[in-house]
Write a sequence for this structure.
């Protein structure tokens, strides 16, 4: 494991505070995430792990009554950019920072359209290229053989594990530089979870993975570093410990 | 709640459901038994050959064809005015309007929905008079004015159902597309609206039914007892509900009364046909938007 040096940092979070209604959810987080590594975020439930993920792609902004202070910088296209700068394009951020949620959330459309959807959003019209990319993404998540004959069927007709791999394929099709995963394996059986773990390890080649998880043995297997968010102490201070594994 | 209460509520709900269905079936059976016998080609087309009437615009005397055509045109024009306005206002209310604007406009649309149709008819009539005096002598109560007034009458239904359908979409689906880089507009058109088509359809069906049956509005805005098939948007027209109203209030003999029943049967069948058309269009749209590879 390489030490975290300024050259290989991908994401810099400084003095991040997050409020929902009047409640302080995250207080004063500063953390750095290394490029092409897997970071696991752990901590008791309800502590704000998922919220933290959403500050990295600005998805919390759709919640009414939520507020944030602090800065998040991500190295995109070779230089650090403040993703909260007013001039920063939100669709571009969301294409570069993909996300997979805890419960699979396929859209109510066909399997093919679900996976191709991010390309459609990006304005891609080349049918042949779309087909190739859809196949490649489904191959990566080991779903292609299971669905290649039923691409026009509803995505809801798939099992839970298949749906989650579909969502992962959908997140991968826009070739994100950062991938946020919110307990992606919690609805999967052990065998499928292992497939996903393998996949995450291979993704590390060109992608920065940040993962919220409860399964310590899964984390030990794949994570390069662990960020532990603790309960606030008497003074309301939360602690963030960074542990290197492996 | 205790056991007795549960049984009571269950019994009441069943009872009310059955009462409602019985009522509807009684009306239907009565109408069809009286009216179905009167429905025949002669009643619809009079002495004119049907093909000539439909395709060559040959005038029909003593038949219901002009009234059927008038009602169809009226429904099509008013619903096609109301749908784009209603759906876009619904989208605005659900997705863009701020809290205050939303409550203000919701109140206004509720009031609009509560306006008696005769008042809207009066509004249409005054509009026609106003346009006649200040704009063009050619404008008087006509198909166009009726269609506009009816659209006005049904827009609140479409707004309300569109808004509700959009607001009921769960948060997890709402954030799915933005998480992949969708702009707000893309999210609305690719995900949220296709997802609420079924809900929007119920509003459109309500609107179609209302446009087809309303008599008060059209009575004041251009319907007449005999006009033939309307030649333009600016001419008078006939309509089935007005015919039914007219016959039932001043029928001369038993045969005319039977014609009234026949017209009611035709109106019901026409509405059913229009509902099915709306349903098929919705299914087709949903397929185009979501499943075509």
């Amino acid at each position: 494991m390489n030490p975290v040096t300024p050259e290989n940092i991908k994401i810099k979070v400084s003095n991040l505070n997050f409020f929902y209604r009047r409640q302080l959810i995250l207080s004063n987080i500063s953390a750095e995430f290394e490029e092409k590594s897997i970071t696991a975020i752990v901590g008791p439930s309800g502590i704000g792990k998922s919220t933290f993920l959403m500050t990295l792609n600005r998805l919390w902004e759709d919640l009414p009554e939520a507020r944030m202070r602090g800065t998040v910088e991500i190295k995109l296209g070779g230089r650090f950019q403040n993703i909260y700068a007013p001039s920063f394009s939100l669709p571009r951020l969301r294409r570069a920072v993909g996300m997979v949620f805890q419960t699979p959330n396929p859209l109510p459309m066909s399997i093919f359209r679900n996976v191709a959807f991010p390309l459609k959003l990006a304005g891609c019209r080349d049918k042949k290229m779309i087909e190739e990319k859809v196949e490649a993404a489904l191959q990566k998540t080991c779903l292609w053989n299971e669905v290649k004959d039923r691409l026009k069927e509803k995505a809801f007709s798939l099992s839970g594990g298949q749906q989650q791999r579909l969502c992962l394929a959908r997140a991968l099709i826009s070739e994100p530089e950062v991938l946020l995963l919110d307990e992606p394996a919690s609805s999967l059986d052990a065998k499928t979870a292992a497939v996903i773990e393998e996949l995450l390890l291979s993704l590390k080649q060109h992608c920065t993975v940040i993962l919220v998880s409860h399964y310590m043995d899964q984390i030990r297997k794949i994570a390069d570093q662990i960020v532990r968010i603790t309960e606030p102490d008497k003074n309301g201070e939360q602690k963030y410990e960074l542990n290197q594994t492996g | 709640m205790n056991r007795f209460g549960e049984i009571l509520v269950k019994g009441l709900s069943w009872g009310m459901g059955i009462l409602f269905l019985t009522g509807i079936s009684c009306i239907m059976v009565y109408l069809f038994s009286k009216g179905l016998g009167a429905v025949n080609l002669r009643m619809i087309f009079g002495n004119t050959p049907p093909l000539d009437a439909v395709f060559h615009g040959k005038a029909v005397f003593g038949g219901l064809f002009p009234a059927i055509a008038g009602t169809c045109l009226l429904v099509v024009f008013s619903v096609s005015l109301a749908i784009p306005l209603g759906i876009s206002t619904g989208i605005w209310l659900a997705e863009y309007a701020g809290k205050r604007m939303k409550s203000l406009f919701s109140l206004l649309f509720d009031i609009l929905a509560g306006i008696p149709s005769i008042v809207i008819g009066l509004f249409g009539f005054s509009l026609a008079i106003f346009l006649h005096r200040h704009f063009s002598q050619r404008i008087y109560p006509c198909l166009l004015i009726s269609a506009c007034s009816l659209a006005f009458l049904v827009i609140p239904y479409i707004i309300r159902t569109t808004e509700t359908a959009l607001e009921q979409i769960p948060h997890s689906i709402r954030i799915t597309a933005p998480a992949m880089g969708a702009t707000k507009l893309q999210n609305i058109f690719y995900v949220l609206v296709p997802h609420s088509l079924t809900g929007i359809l119920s509003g459109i069906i309500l609107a179609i039914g209302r446009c087809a049956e309303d008599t008060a509005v059209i009575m004041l805005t251009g319907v007449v007892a005999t006009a033939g098939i309307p030649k333009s948007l600016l001419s008078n027209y006939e309509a089935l509900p007005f015919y039914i109203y007219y016959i039932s209030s001043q029928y001369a003999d038993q045969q005319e009364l039977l014609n009234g029943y026949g017209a009611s049967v035709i109106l019901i069948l026409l509405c059913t046909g229009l509902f099915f058309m709306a349903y098929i269009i919705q299914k087709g749209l949903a397929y185009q938007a979501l499943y075509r590879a």
In short: The CA atoms of residues 182 and 275 of chain B lie 34 Å apart. Residues 254-290 of chain B form the longest helix (37 residues).
